[in-house]
């Protein structure tokens, strides 16, 4: 063959390869478009869920910028004359900084825990507006806090009721009965004296004492006398006919009741009657409701606790909305790092996670191995049985790979019929054995396609290890890719490790086991 002919043949081979690469890129682009469409639909559903709740909801990033907001929250911000809430920075807004909200947001992220706080703002005509903020840190899969999700409830009416109760007994009674918030007034003086006697007997840890003597919890509960209650309280408790109803919570043998009774007893013992907390409340009809309860001592009874008003706000629906939002947000984050066809992790997760494992390996002087795998002659399967069956085969191969590994190892759908397996803490010998196991499992597994068509597949696998074969993330992936390329060039259907250019070592065996 003449040199011009050889050059022409080489050029034609490059053209064929480029055409194949173009086809592959178009397939990847199509899959990306499908993934983006699914993510957009999920975001639309999340927004619809947020907009349907009667509570204000917003999310912010770690820099204090709002990253998501529902219609109710936009309307609430407009109460504070904030015209463009979507572009608001919560750390620099004067009204929010002055109220203390900015500090609570920073505390929520710094302490990595939920924060419940009520803040006052200047509303229309300088009338105070009180909002109760339920702040939850957004913790990513790698443990970093990327922001805060907040559910905001307008509790202005509750604050107005609290202030009115302190002004006068007559007005207090009127507001007490007409308040839309469930209220019950207790005389806790006998309970307080009983707890003081228990402490005087030498008991210093009341929480531990009540935990060891549940019968004492019931006795403490019986010492609470109900003085008054309003219609909203009856509605909350599920009481349809209040004739003969003394306004008591109905004791049961459930752990919910015992826990609530213990909390109330400890609150009385510690003198924290004004503390706001969430309670799970067993009602008269056996239903459990989550309520936000706050106890207020009527002025003049601070020492004896002879009159204590309990305000209860049913937040069961809000809690359900929060749980639904958290679940939806979790699914969104998970889908963003998963391959839509196989369910394996995608390249985005690979580059993020592998970088973290390599950093950790560098600190702890441990290895990280990588298996780069490619199905042999897979185009023949697609050409013979169609793209749908090809996709089905890829999905089944992904299951085969997953069945061979355990956490913290994980598999990645890299591109088309290419896969990557990350093996944190595995040296080259161990990784070669695992690659051989995957290779044999793929060979031995019959893959059933549509119409009960059975195909047998083969794969080539290249192995590289950090730091023996590479000193960085990209270098490790490139080394495993070189090992795979060498296997495919030598005839495919084998497992091998990366060979360094200057190495005098013999080539890897046909199948490392």
List the helices and strands and how they pair.
Blueprint lengths: L2 H50 L3 E6 L4 E4 L1 H9 L14 H6 L1 H11 L3 E8 L5 E12 L5 E10 L1 H12 L1 H10 L3 E6 L1 H12 L5 H7 L1 H9 L2 E5 L1 H7 L17 H16 L5 E7 L5 E10 L10 E7 L1 H21 L10 H18 L3 E8 L2 H8 L1 H17 L6 E6 L2 E7 L3 H17 L2 E2 L5 E2 L3 E8 L6 H17 L5 E3 L16
Parallel strand pairs: 16-17
Antiparallel strand pairs: 1-2, 1-5, 3-4, 4-5, 6-7, 6-10, 8-9, 9-10, 11-13, 11-16, 12-13, 14-15
Helix pairs in contact: 1-12, 5-6, 9-11, 14-15
Give the strand tally: 17
Question: How much of the sequence is in beta strands?
Answer: 15-25%
Roughly how much helix do the residues carry, as a percent range?
A: 40-55%
Main structural class: alpha+beta
- How many DSSP H or I helices? 17
Described by its quaternary structure, the protein is: single chain
Please summarize the sheet with the most strands: 5 strands, antiparallel
The assigned CATH architecture of the largest domain is 2-Layer Sandwich
Strand arrangement across the biggest beta sheet: 2-1-5-4-3
What is the radius of gyration computed over CA atoms, rounded to a whole number of angstroms?
33 Å
What does this structure look like?
This protein folds into 4 domains: 52 residues; 100 residues, PAS domain (Beta-Lactamase), CATH 3.30.450; 162 residues, 2-Layer Sandwich (Beta-Lactamase); 161 residues, Alpha-Beta Plaits. 48% of the residues lie in helices and 22% in strands. The strands form 4 sheets. A 5-stranded antiparallel β-sheet has the order 2-1-5-4-3, with helices on both faces. A 5-stranded antiparallel β-sheet has the order 7-6-10-9-8, sandwiched between helices. A hairpin with a 5-residue loop joins strand 4 and strand 5. Helix 1 packs antiparallel against helix 12 and helix 14 crosses helix 15. The radius of gyration is 33 Å and the shape is elongated. The two termini are 43 Å apart. The relative contact order is 0.07. The C terminus is likely disordered.
């Amino acid at each position: 063959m003449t040199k011009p002919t050889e050059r022409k043949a080489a050029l034609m081979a490059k053209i064929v390869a480029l055409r194949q690469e173009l086809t592959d890129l178009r397939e990847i682009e199509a899959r990306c478009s499908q993934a983006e469409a699914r993510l957009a639909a999920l975001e639309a559903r999340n927004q619809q869920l947020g907009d349907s709740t009667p509570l204000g909801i917003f999310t912010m990033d770690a820099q204090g910028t709002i990253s998501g907001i529902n219609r109710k929250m936009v309307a609430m911000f407009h109460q504070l004359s904030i015209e463009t809430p979507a572009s608001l920075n919560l750390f620099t807004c004067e009204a929010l900084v002055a109220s203390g909200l900015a500090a609570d947001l920073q505390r929520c992220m710094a302490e990595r825990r939920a924060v419940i706080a009520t803040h006052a703002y200047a509303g229309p005509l300088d009338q105070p507006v009180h909002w109760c903020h339920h702040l939850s840190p957004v913790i990513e899969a790698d443990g970093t806090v990327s922001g805060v999700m907040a559910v905001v409830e307008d509790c202005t009416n509750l604050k107005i009721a609290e202030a009115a109760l302190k002004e006068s007994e007559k007005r207090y009674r009127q507001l007490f009965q007409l308040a839309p918030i469930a209220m019950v007034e207790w005389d806790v003086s006998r309970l307080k004296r009983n707890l003081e006697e228990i402490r005087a007997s030498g008991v210093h840890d009341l929480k531990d004492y009540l935990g060891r003597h549940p019968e004492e919890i019931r006795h403490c509960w019986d010492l609470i006398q109900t003085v008054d209650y309003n219609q909203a309280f009856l509605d909350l408790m599920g009481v349809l006919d209040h004739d003969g109803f003394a306004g008591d919570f109905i004791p049961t043998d459930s752990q919910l009741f015992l826990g609530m009774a213990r909390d109330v007893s400890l609150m009385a013992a510690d003198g924290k009657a004004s503390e706001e907390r969430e309670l799970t409340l067993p009602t008269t009809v056996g239903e459990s409701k989550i309520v936000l309860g706050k106890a207020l001592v009527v002025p003049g009874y601070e020492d004896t606790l002879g009159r204590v008003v309990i305000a209860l706000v049913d937040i069961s629906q809000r809690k359900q909305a929060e749980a639904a939002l958290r679940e939806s947000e979790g699914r969104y984050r998970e889908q963003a790092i998963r391959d839509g066809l196989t369910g394996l992790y995608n390249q985005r997760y690979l580059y993020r996670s592998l970088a973290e494992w390599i950093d950790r390996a560098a600190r702890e002087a441990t290895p990280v191995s990588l298996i780069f795998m490619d199905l042999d002659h897979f185009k023949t399967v697609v050409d013979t049985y169609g793209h749908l069956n090809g996709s089905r085969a890829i999905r089944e191969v992904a299951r085969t790979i997953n069945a061979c590994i355990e956490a913290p190892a994980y598999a990645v759908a890299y591109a088309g019929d290419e896969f990557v397996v990350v093996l944190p803490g595995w040296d080259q010998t161990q990784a070669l054995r695992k690659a051989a196991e995957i290779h044999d499992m793929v060979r031995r597994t019959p893959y059933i396609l549509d119409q009960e068509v059975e195909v047998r597949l083969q794969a080539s696998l290249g192995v590289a290890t950090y730091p023996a074969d590479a000193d960085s993330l990209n270098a490790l992936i490139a080394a495993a890719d070189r090992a795979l390329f060498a296997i495919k060039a030598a005839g495919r259907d084998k497992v091998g490790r990366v060979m360094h250019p200057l190495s005098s070592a013999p080539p890897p065996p046909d199948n490392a086991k």
